[in-house]
Automatic annotation (TrEMBL):
Keyword Protein biosynthesis assigned: no
The protein, known as: Trichome birefringence-like N-terminal domain-containing protein
InterPro entries from the UniProt entry: TBL, TBL_C, TBL_N
A GO term for molecular function: O-acetyltransferase activity
Length: 349
């Protein structure tokens, strides 16, 4: 048995443990936070609490109760001493889609960005400690290519600590599973860009001109991850259009009813299906949830101060302004996420 001296007691308020990152966080932050959650809950007996409008606060439950740290309030700093934490070229499971260096990217300073909360320091990443924490557990990322990116990063972060014969990667349909065999730990990705069923569910061929979504159907996806110990969802970019075709009935059946529904209403319908499923099927004492909504779109060079209507090609520096929301962000979507997650938390407790 691993020693869990300060192991946190299950959250007394079910669903109080939903981690919602409602702000415009660069998605990498979520990986960082997840690592931190996983560490701190074990190492220092730390618990996350947050309010549904904004930030996650980390509150020590052992030690000095007055010290707390808002992990969402911080900035990216340059750190070439301890970063990068892994080398893309050396990662056994790096995906070509994400392999910038392999395909010739020269500026690699983006790998030296470390998230620095204003109020505290994060512990240095330790792959062994993370695997220990994931022993006999499933960590599942569900969503679109942003979450797949997060998942690949997480796999690359830990896989170097595992010898070749003790790890595996396996794909079955929409689910891809990395296993650290000795730990019986798995880190998985499930493709579901709209969370609910849609005509974009094929893990490879999903770029279709007319997006059709079954806003009331999620079981086909959810049965693959309902029993996970950690669930990290994301869904936003695939909803960025003015309306979507909603299907009542099933794909391929002749009596299906199609109707155009506008944003953000259609997003809200899907998110409610998702949260209803979680409420009924996921045990809040066992499973920790994370939800990533908005992510920056970085499509226009104007955001970097170039005004001639170009895209982000060649931009290598961060936007330094703290609290910058990003040109593609949609406050209406944020309100929906706040409401649905807020309700889920309340209903669960
Ligand atoms: C939620 O957090 C924000 C930012 O930290 C704070 O200003 C606000 O008062 C909090 N709201 C509640 C209800 O705790
Ligand atoms: C880190 O960056 C600084 C400033 O750019 C540079 O002077 C130093 O040589 C770098 N150190 C390493 C180990 O790359
Ligand atoms: C990483 O974590 C393992 C397991 O908890 C521990 O034995 C090891 O000392 C840690 N390594 C560092 C560099 O902190
Ligand atoms: C291995 O991990 C799975 C979760 O991924 C768990 O259900 C199972 O009980 C674990 N096996 C053992 C022998 O603990
Ligand atoms: C793939 O997943 C399906 C459905 O969950 C399951 O029935 C099947 O056994 C899996 N196949 C492999 C090779 O794991
Ligand atoms: C639905 O979206 C399409 C493409 O974004 C647009 O051309 C069309 O006008 C929209 N229809 C309605 C009813 O808003
Ligand atoms: C979760 O834990 C609480 C307190 O230990 C318990 O009362 C409740 O029944 C548990 N819920 C589930 C779904 O197991
Ligand atoms: C975002 O930038 C694009 C391209 O410059 C511009 O057309 C669009 O109006 C901007 N959107 C917002 C919300 O500022």
């Amino acid at each position: 048995m691993p020693k869990h001296k300060h192991q946190i007691v299950p959250n007394p308020k079910p669903w109080g443990s939903i981690r919602s990152s409602l702000h415009f966080l660069i998605a990498a932050l979520v990986a960082t936070l997840l690592i931190v959650t996983v560490y701190l809950t074990q190492e220092y007996g730390v618990q996350f609490l947050e309010n549904c409008t904004a930030s996650t606060t980390i509150v020590k439950t052992s030690g000095d109760p007055s010290s707390s740290c808002n992990l969402f309030s911080g900035k990216w700093v340059f750190d070439n001493q301890s970063y990068p934490l892994y080398k893309g070229l050396q990662c056994t499971y790096m995906s070509d889609q994400l392999a910038c260096e392999k395909f010739g990217r020269k500026d690699l300073s983006f790998q030296n960005r470390r998230w620095q909360p204003h109020e505290c320091d994060l512990p240095r990443f330790n792959a062994t400690a993370l695997l220990e924490r994931l022993r006999n557990k499933r960590l599942v990322y569900v969503g679109d290519s942003l979450n797949r990116n997060q998942w690949v990063s997480m796999v690359c972060l830990v896989e170097s600590a595992v010898p070749p014969e003790l790890k595996s990667m396996h794909t079955n349909g929409s689910l891809t599973t990395f296993k650290a065999i000795e730990y019986n730990a798995s880190i998985e990705f499930y493709w579901a860009p709209l969370l609910v069923e849609s005509n974009s569910d094929h893990p490879v061929n999903h770029r279709l001109p007319d997006r059709i979504v079954r806003v009331q159907a999620i079981e086909k996806h959810a049965r693959h991850w309902t029993d996970a110990d950690f669930l990290v969802f994301n869904s936003f970019l695939w909803w960025r259009r003015s309306n979507m075709s909603v299907l009542w009935g099933s794909f391929g059946s002749s009596d299906g009813i199609y109707k155009k529904v506008e944003m953000p209403r259609v997003y809200e319908m899907a998110l409610k299906t998702w949260s209803n499923w979680l409420e009924v099927h996921v045990n809040p004492n066992k499973t920790q949830l994370f939800f990533v909504s908005m992510s920056p779109t970085h499509q226009s060079a104007e955001e970097w101060g170039v005004t001639n209507g170009e895209n982000c090609y060649g931009e290598t520096e961060l936007i330094k302004e703290e609290g910058y929301h990003g040109n593609g962000s949609d406050p209406k979507i944020m309100r929906v996420v706040e409401n649905v997650l807020g309700e889920l938390k309340t209903r669960g407790s």
